[in-house]
Amino acid sequence: WYQRRVHDCASMLAPQKKLHPTPMEVVETGLKLLHLTNQDTLYDIGCGDGRVLVKAARDYGARCVGLDINEDMVRTARQAAEDAGVSHLVSVRQGSALEADLSDASAVFMFLCDYGLKKMAVLLEASQRPIRVVTYLYAMPKSASQVWRPVQVVRCSTSFCAEKAFPLHLYHVGPKAELKESQIA
């Protein structure tokens, strides 16, 4: 299953996850790694059904921005935020992640393939402020300007696939990546 996903991702930004959205165990673990507060603006790149956005807004009071290229997923994510009563904290936009303005981001969650992560690295490295980044399954690749080294890697087992533990990678990026001590676990 994993090898098939890696092969399928060669020319796409994100894995085909139509049948398998990010498991809630992974969402919860990823958000804990980000140490979100109500002062944060979280971007979920390829937000799908909006589960990361809803959980971050509801549990942490974070302002959330979801980006997805699929119009149906954008509608689904907006409806999920409305149903959860957090639409005042959640904005969902349709479009390419490569055209995203991340200038107000303090945290980013991404479930993208190697190709997508390479493309997003350019945007993240241009940030004028520190950003905490969590990637699920795939690690950030080397880029032209920096070698991405995770601050922390956590393996998360899920009810979807109990026999495997999937990695989540936490990175700090931006000018000096100065983070509050409370944000570093």
Could you characterize the architecture of this molecule?
The chain has 185 residues and is of the alpha/beta class. Helices cover 29% and strands 22% of the residues. The protein has helices at residues 2-8, 24-34, 51-60, 71-84, 114-125; strands at 41-45, 63-68, 90-94, 107-110, 131-136, 152-157, 165-173. It has a 7-stranded mixed sheet. Strand 4 (107-110), helix 5 and strand 5 (131-136) form a beta-alpha-beta unit. Helix 3 (51-60) packs parallel to helix 4. It starts with a helix and ends in a 12-residue tail after the last strand.
Secondary-structure topology with pairs:
Elements: H1 2-8, H2 24-34, E1 41-45, H3 51-60, E2 63-68, H4 71-84, E3 90-94, E4 107-110, H5 114-125, E5 131-136, E6 152-157, E7 165-173
Helix pairs in contact: 2-3, 3-4
